[in-house]
Amino acid sequence: MENFAFAPAYELPAWPFVPPPELGSPTVVRHPIVIVGAGPSGLTLACDLAQRGVHAVLLDEDDTVGVRGASSRGICYAQKSLEIFERLGIYERIAAKGITWSFGRTFSGEQEVYNFNLQANSVSKQPPFINLQQFYVEWFLVERILELGRTDVRWKSRVTHVEPLRDGVRIDIETPAGSYSIEADHLIDATGANSPIRTQLGIEAHASRSTDRWCISDVRFKKPLPTERWTWVDAPFNEGRGVWQHLMADGVWRIDYQMPEDCDTAHISKPEVAGARLREQLGPGVEFEFVWIGPYGYRDHLLDSFRHGHVFFIGDAAHVVSPFGARGGNSGIQDAANLGWKLALVAQGKAGDALLDSYDAERQPAARQNLEVTSRSARFLAPRSPAEHTLRRAVVALAARHPFARALVNTGRMSVANDYPAAAQLPDGARSVQNLPLRWAGGRETTLMQLLAEGTQCIGLWFAPTRGEADAALEATASLPLRLIAVGGDSDLPTLQADEKLARHLGIGEEAGGLVLVRPDAYRAAVLAQATPQAIVAALRTALAHNANNDHGAP
User: If phi over 0 gives left and psi between -120 and 50 gives alpha, with beta otherwise, what is residue 436?
Assistant: First the structure.
């Protein structure tokens, strides 16, 4: 057997277990929000709430981030997620540590058949993608949560049972110091694909029958490779199956090799077997050291509803999709951003329970769309019939010669922010607004995310309102979570410089009087061609589901 060098293991942080105040108490304490699971979605939600000044309890079985052994796990963070991290105050750390990229190449055999540049249609301050090992993102989120100081983070705390109540949830928890119970107004399950809470409640996940299997190699090379995303549809060095190649932080490359469903996972992960694959790919003389090697398998699943009474499911607990296009972890982060501001407004008494129903109404269709997109990619990369094999060969052959066919080469449509369908709170549906660089009238720079980081409120971007219109609207909306900002004009509102790019991106003309209502999660909720105080109030009440029946009585 050959000798294979392994890079020094990462030193992951560990946080102490602190016995909770409820331990040993006969009283069952009620908390407004309890989050179970400190992965990317659970941590994003906890951080989002803390940023909004809302207290939550966060429970996790472990006392560190990532997994033991420091595998990379999720690595590709999409623009929408990066914009969320900008608002939460950790983007600069991610950008400094990670690898920014926008260019990718797709190969069939040794021939390049397609390439793309994701930067072409972007107007955001954030790039299309940054690659970074998942444990770093979790690490940065934990440190930011602790810095904000509003979250009760409880490590080494395993949830053993949940009991839905009429007005909340009872949660039994096991710790190194003993067991105890608490109650929550709302429980958020972020425990991942194998959610014990989902299983205990008997909620059907609709998992696919087949398992897609891969072997991940995290590797350092003596000679660096190009900093681009390279994908092989049918790599000759992997028995005609797919391969992904990405650079991450610390000079570590993530190379994913698609494997047969019935493969021996222990065998494919042996250093000598993984090393032989690398030499087959990069030549017998390639010099490298392994950081981590391991098998990865998944089955798609999708819950019918992401809300069950007072229990909400986010991230992999709610949906699992193929990794093609980085739509899995990013979708969980965006679940958290969608739910966070809604929970905050309800906790602060500024919205009723009906607003929480909109989480499922928006994020379940988004997950269904991601599942459809990634399933098509999976069928392209692993054809299941002679007809599918024939179609793929034809597409790949045409793509090498004809531009029209290149869009059909499906190695994963890269993650984008999902549009939301029309619903009670979104009569015209909604789409994400990118984090445009902006300037105040005096010249000082800002961004949309910086505007949204200040409190939990919608923003009304109002093009050149008159002073009288602005004063009347301020009076009409004084009790509502809304910040009015002028774009040009001479009102007394805080005023941004007029910007044609901003108007075009928002989908409105620059004519005076038009207003775009942007939600706290940077989604466009309404466009008013001619804003009046009454129209602004009506649009805001609709966006906050104030017009719907609810349990708690919206203001």
Answer: beta
pTM of the predicted structure, to 2 decimals:
0.93
Are residues 67 and 12 in contact, defined by beta-carbon separation less than 8 angstroms? no
- HSE toward the beta carbon, residue 394, CA cutoff 13 A: 6
Q: Which of 363, 367, 346 is nearest to 355 (CA)?
A: 346
Give the long-range contacts of residues 505-510, CB within 8 A, separation 24 or more: 505/123, 505/433, 505/434, 505/436, 506/433, 506/461, 508/463, 509/463, 510/463
pLDDT score of 122 more than 70: yes
The closest of 304, 333, 310 to 521, measured between CA atoms, is: 333
Chain segment 60-78, per-residue pLDDT in tens: 999 999 876 567 888 999 9
- Tens digits of per-residue pLDDT, 477-508? 999 999 999 999 999 999 999 888 899 999 99
**Position 110, amino acid:** E
What are the tokens at 131? Answer: 């690659």
* Alpha-carbon gap, residue 281 to 125, rounded angstroms: 36
Sequence-distant (6+) residues with CB within 8 A of 554 are 351, 352, 354, 355, 544, 545, 546, 548
The β-bridge partners of 162 are 171
Q: Quick check: 388 and 507 in contact, CB under 8 A?
A: no
Q: How many angstroms separate the CA atoms of 493 and 488, rounded?
A: 10
The sign of the torsion formed by the CA atoms of 106, 110, 112, 117 equals positive
Q: Report yes or no: 221 and 247 within 8 Å, Cβ to Cβ.
A: no
Pick from 389, 547, 552, 530: which is nearest to 473 by CA?
530
Reading the block at residue 79, the tokens are 């623009």
Find, among 139, 138, 132, 12, the residue nearest to 75 by Cα.
132
- Closest by CA position to 392, among listed 374, 403, 405: 405
- Calculate ∠ Cα 332-540-370, nearest 5°: 25
Position of tokens 């490779």? Answer: 225
> Any residues with CB less than 8 A from the CB of 394 and at least 6 apart, and which?
none
